[in-house]
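Input structure tokens:
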């Protein structure tokens, strides 16, 4: 379908479904969803010329002397919002951000991902992703009182959020987003939904939609949903494990039946790229001060750049597949990202790291047969195992010194993220926490 046909299809869909308002969505550099609403009468003009807005008011977009930006709707992302009224209903479209001269804005996270995907396509690859997204329900947004005390895969009576998950799945499916499975996770009131494989751009749009739908459904049931990485100090945090693979046309480039674990040379080089560059890209996959409270020993979260087939605390895991789905299902799982990251930048950074391994034929080290905790620091160093950053400050330093991240994300995103996150770290360092009051006030 060409651009004109796509625009006409959207206009006709609005007429057929009595759509009165269209929300134009995009994200700032931190992955916060932004929206401007137009009426159906303005739709045709918006599809051709876009909608102007003040870029200097959006985090990480533009300086005051270059404020004008244009949001251009992508007709392929048109969907009606099921939770809004059916009469004079509301739809949404994701937008690409452009400068007034019509050129793509290099600080637009969606454009950054498109640019990275295009580079992979030049090598013949399409990038597919299936995220496992974890989050918490709490009784309200003022605290962390859980709805239940359930654990991994628990059902009622402990899992009182079953209806919330059910309604969320149904809403997502109405919007064309397929959910492979949903279940209670390990921590009290923690849940997970796995989105079915899709190309990375479609999936990044889906993740942004997913986070809003989870919150909307929760709010309508009088509870609060959060993607905060570590809201409960003594429980597991919320990850967004990324199952991923590269395809060449219809063929899974990660599969080779003649190799160990049926992993192709491309898959092994890709994994080696992730292991080598993981510390560099963690400012993107784990962007908050709170992100590093999750990445500590004992909570099924990686602390070092290791891989295996079974250990769920490794950075990279190779899941076992049933014989009937082995070829198309061969994939790797990247376990460090959390569910509060910007999916556009996270997917771009992960792909860039993996493709660096493919281009440069990085050698994949041997899998770690025992857990990190079973090795001394000296043993890990002797094996060349990299430690992951343990704080936002460490992540900033690694990111800032990374030529790969600077090239992959572009100068604008690279420099803006460093500036933004240094301000966050300085603000955090000046805080006095309840932990400090309890521990040191008696001194």
């Amino acid at each position: 379908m060409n651009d004109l046909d796509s625009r006409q299809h959207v206009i006709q869909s609005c007429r057929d479904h009595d759509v009165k308002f269209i929300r134009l969505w995009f994200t700032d550099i931190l992955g916060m969803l932004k929206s401007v609403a137009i009426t159906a009468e303005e739709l045709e003009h918006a599809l051709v010329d876009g909608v102007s807005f003040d870029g200097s008011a959006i985090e990480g977009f533009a300086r005051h002397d270059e404020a004008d930006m244009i949001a251009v709707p992508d007709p392929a992302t048109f969907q009606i919002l099921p939770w809004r009224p059916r009469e004079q209903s509301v739809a949404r479209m994701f937008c690409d951000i452009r400068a007034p001269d019509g050129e793509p804005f290099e600080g637009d996270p969606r454009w950054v991902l498109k640019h990275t995907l295009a580079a992979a396509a030049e090598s013949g690859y399409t990038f597919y992703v299936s995220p496992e997204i974890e989050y918490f329900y709490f009784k309200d947004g003022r605290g962390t009182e859980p709805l239940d005390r359930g654990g991994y895969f628990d059902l009622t009576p402990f899992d009182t959020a079953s209806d919330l998950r059910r309604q969320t799945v149904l809403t997502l499916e109405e919007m064309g987003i397929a959910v492979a499975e949903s279940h209670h996770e390990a921590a009290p009131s923690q849940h997970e939904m796995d989105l079915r494989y899709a190309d990375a751009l479609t999936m990044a749009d889906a993740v942004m939609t997913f986070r809003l739908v989870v919150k909307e459904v929760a709010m309508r049931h009088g509870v609060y949903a959060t993607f905060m990485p570590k809201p409960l100090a003594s429980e597991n945090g919320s990850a967004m494990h990324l199952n991923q693979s590269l395809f060449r046309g219809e063929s899974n480039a990660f599969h080779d039946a003649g190799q160990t674990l049926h992993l192709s040379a491309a898959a092994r080089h890709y994994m080696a790229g992730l292991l080598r560059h993981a510390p560099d890209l963690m400012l993107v996959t784990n962007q908050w001060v709170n992100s590093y409270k999750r990445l500590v020993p004992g909570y099924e979260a990686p602390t070092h750049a290791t891989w295996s087939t079974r250990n769920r605390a490794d950075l990279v895991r190779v899941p076992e597949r049933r014989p009937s789905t082995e070829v198309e299902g061969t994939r790797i799982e990247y376990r460090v990202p959390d569910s509060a990251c910007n999916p556009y930048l996270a997917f771009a950074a992960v792909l860039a790291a993996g493709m660096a391994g493919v281009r440069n034929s990085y050698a994949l080290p041997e899998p770690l047969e025992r857990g990190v905790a079973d090795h001394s620091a000296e043993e890990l160093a002797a094996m060349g195992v990299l430690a992951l950053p343990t704080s936002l400050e460490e992540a900033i330093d690694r990111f800032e010194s990374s030529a790969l991240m600077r090239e992959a994300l572009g100068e604008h995103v690279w420099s803006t993220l460093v500036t933004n996150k240094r301000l966050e770290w300085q603000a955090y360092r000046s805080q006095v926490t309840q932990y400090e009051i309890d521990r040191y006030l008696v001194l």
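The chain is about 35% helix and 20% strand. The chain has a mean pLDDT of 91.
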